[in-house]
Amino acid sequence: xxxxxxxxxxxxxxxxxxxxxxxxxxxxxxxxxxxxxxxxxxxxxxxxxxxxxxxxxxxxxxxxxxxxxxxxxxxxxxxxxxxxxxxxxxxxxxxxxxxxxxxxxxxxxxxxxxxxxxxxxxxxxxxxxxxxxxxxxxxxxxxxxxxxxxxxxxxxxxxxxxxxxxxxxxxxxxxxxxxxxxxxxxxxxxxxxxxxxxxxxxxxxxxxxxxxxxxxxxxxxxxxxxxxxxxxxxxxxxxxxxxxxxxxxxxxxxxxxxxxxxxxxxxxxxxxxxxxxxxxxxxxxxxxxxxxxxxxxxxxxxxxxxxxxxxxxxxxxxxxxxxxxxxxxxxxxxxxxxxxxxxxxxxxxxxxxxxxxxxxxxxxxxxxxxxxxxxxxxxxxxxxxxxxxxxxxxxxxxxx
Length: 400
Ligand code: NDP
Known about the structure:
Structural class: alpha/beta
Helix content: 25-40%
Bound molecules: NADPH dihydro-nicotinamide-adenine-dinucleotide phosphate
Largest sheet: 7 strands, mixed
Radius of gyration: 21 Å
Strand content: 5-15%
Mean pLDDT: 97
């Protein structure tokens, strides 16, 4: 029987919710490309409840324990004294979320001789040293598409918030002011702007689709080109290089995975290609950007705004400059963990566990690494190597 270690974020400071703002979730039949939603044999949770925090346990306890497995759920994940570090010795499965990642570095993988499955309850498995996982023949799987649309909505929200200067205007209200000129001195319309995405995968295309009705000019760059019909439908301009796209865009959004090819792709050098006063929206991964180069670009005015929800490491230490840099619209990593998304990724996690324990194949679209190589979605979207370097800094975070 297996030990499953599940790292989840803490419950709300006021305690696990006893009731919710809404009584139901909209019914979604399938994802936009026709992929079916997670289909476990059963679920043991109420859709729309808080599943991603420690007490929610992703709704897995009954299922795992009734099959004789041990489930350890913890939010203690960083540093040598963490519960995760202690439990690794005999863990067969580690479940983690990108929002509050259990970094599985090569050192930690070496401390986990029984580890066979690293399961991401969400999308993006860069918190696992994929190179080390390949070398140890550990399967890495994630719940592809579970929160792609949730994130696309956050990108649109952040774009509008930055361009229209929403957050400072809201703050004037909270301060008791009526400072219209202060609010609008940095406020523009999105209409007519050139918006470009780095990567036109599930999130990137959903962002483009949602921004089209705003009367924008849409651009993208990717390793593979979209079908001509999609380019025509959305009126897209394809750019062979990222730099070509940056030159013409008022808003750039990053929607590619973090892997050695994309790490720090936004830096002092590449920021020079941006139009002065461009907005950058990143809900993909914090480490796509050089942290200090972003702060410098906001201070100099090269960027007019930066927003998103992803940081490196996570949780971001209190002195992380993105907390205090000017003109930012940052949140903690929340875009992919709305209550709606939690229901899908909890069901997807259960589906993957059922497949794993019953010896059935995990869906190809959920696979990142299998059999010692990149596989499934991983083979399409990632490059070999490791992007976890520096993750030990997460131990510097102190709860408030
Ligand atoms: P997809 O796999 O659908 O899309 C990823 C896209 O990135 C693919 O089109 C891939 O291109 C492209 N890509 C990979 N490398 C490069 C590169 N070097 N240059 C340009 N494009 C590249 O994934 P999703 O759209 O669902 O998610 C994308 C990322 O967003 C995730 O990997 C994750 O990091 C992040 N994410 C964040 C969440 C949050 O809560 N903030 C939640 C969900 C995801 P190709 O296929 O052509 O190789």
